[in-house]
Amino acid sequence: MFAACPACGKRLYEYRDGRWTEQICWHCGHYSSNTPAFSAQPELFRDVVRKNGAFFMKKYAYYARCLT
């Protein structure tokens, strides 16, 4: 079962790079992570996916290629 986004209730996608885990809702742009930067100041990341959507799409497309 997949986790639901706390903001909109849609599916929450999880990405791991070995050290950190990032959770993104591609429907509403909700972002959470266990990185030190996010833990210290989560309010700075509130709109990070909406404002930098192309960056995140490229980043996670790269993850998908590496894992397959």
Describe this structure in words.
The protein has 68 residues and is α+β, with helices and mostly antiparallel strands. It has one domain (13-63). It is built from three helices and three strands. The protein has helices at 36-40, 48-51, 53-67; strands at 13-16, 21-24, 31-33. It has a three-stranded antiparallel β-sheet with strand order 1-2-3, with no helix packed on it. It is globular. The protein starts with 12 loop residues before the first strand and ends with a helix. The mean pLDDT is 84.
Strand order of the largest sheet: 1-2-3
Per DSSP E runs of 2 or more residues, the count of β-strands stands at 3
Oligomeric form = single chain
- Percentage of residues in helical conformation: 25-40%
Radius of gyration from CA coordinates: 12 Å
Order of helices and strands: EEEHHH
Given the structure, what is the number of helices? 3
Report the span from N to C terminus.
21 Å
Indicate the overall shape: globular
pLDDT below 50 for ≥5 consecutive residues: which ranges?
none
Strand content: 15-25%
* Largest sheet properties: 3 strands, antiparallel
Q: What would you call the structural class?
A: alpha+beta
What is this entry, summarized?
The protein is built from 3 helices and 3 strands, in the order βββααα.
Topology readout:
Layout: E1 13-16, E2 21-24, E3 31-33, H1 36-40, H2 48-51, H3 53-67
Antiparallel strand pairs: 1-2, 2-3
Question: What keywords describe this structure?
Answer:
68 residues; alpha+beta; 3 helices
